[in-house]
Amino acid sequence: MQPDVAPPVRTTPRVSVVVPSCNHVKFIERCLKSIFRQTLPSFELLVIDDGSQDESVALIDRILKDCPFPCEFIARRNLGLCKTLNEGFAKTSGDYFCYLGSDDVWFPAFLASRVALLEAKPNAPLAYGPVFVIDEKDRITNSTRDSAACAEGTNRAQLWRGVGIFSSSVCFRRAKLSAQPWNENARLEDFELYLRLSALGEFAFDAQVLSSWRQHARNTSGDLTMMLEECLAAQRSVAAESGMSAEELEQFQSALQWLWAENFTRTGDKRKAIELIRQSWYGAPSVMARIQILGRLLVPQRVFRALRQKRQDQRTGRNGTIEV
User: Which residues contact 116 (CB under 8 A, 6 or more apart)?
Assistant: First the structure.
């Protein structure tokens, strides 16, 4: 009779990392090498090139030859980001799932820290945190330390009011994500998903800045009108499925429109900002918020940009660059 043999103990949770790549030849090497340098010893990597028309495929193939852990590379025709993420999720098996855009960057402790947080909070669907915003030359232009912070138990409400979570900061729990795939008809991949997941448990917040989100000319986020329309549509879709009352949805939509009025004010599109202010006057979080946005509308955009640059310099250090 064979003696019972205890199965090996896996001391490190297994993580699946997917990199969806599309026409980011300028940034993909930086992205992949930031994954290679992760301190977490046990994870798998899948890179999917979604129909790049530049030299990304050849570069990725060369870089992955030096990958220090199991990896796979798929290059195919363009299907879109949401289909690529669903494909990556289906082809991997880790207890935790992360994806990193091919223009973004992780710091070495990212996976270890996010996984440890999810291990400590077993009901959390995902863990996230603030990011550095960087430009095409890796220079830090902003930080979301202040805007990303959430008190315990409040991030669902903030999410419904439009406070964003940057995908480069997120690690998902596979068991929670498996029933909530990415909506392949959405142009903005994550907001609807976050709304759905927020009904399954409070998200875990890590105050450390462990990732960077890159801002450049090809960002989808540059189209503010599209992003607002997608966010409003996501709210309507999830509200209908969750039984949210029409009054509650109206309040959240008004709050979201107010937040985007502030975004349009910052970018100098005062006509669109005024339109949204009229629609969402009662969605303002306070009387002071109304006074501030009206004041911003009266200030010339060049003055506003100079003040914003000064604050950014004080917050991040002028021309500071990330080191991975």
Answer: none
* Tens-place pLDDT, residues 61-75: 999 999 998 899 999
CB-CB contact of 25 with 63 (8 Å): no
The 3-state DSSP composition of the chain as helix, strand, coil percent (nearest 5) reads 45, 15, 40
Supply the CATH classification number for the domain 15-220: 3.90.550.10
Which among 171, 155, 61, 60 has a CA at the least distance from the CA of 118? Answer: 171
Q: Tens digit of pLDDT for each residue in 108-134?
A: 999 999 999 999 999 999 999 999 999
Kindly state the tokens that stand for 105: 């960057």
pTM for the predicted model, two decimal places: 0.86
Q: How many CB atoms lie within 10 A of CB 113?
A: 19
* Amino acid identity for residue 76 in this structure: R
Q: Where in the chain is the domain with CATH 3.90.550.10?
A: 15-220
Number of alpha carbons in the 13 Å side-chain half-sphere of residue 308: 16
- The per-residue b/e assignment along 199-236, b for 16 or more CB within 10 angstroms, e otherwise, is ebbbbbbbeebbbbbbeeeeeeeeeeeebbebbbbbbe
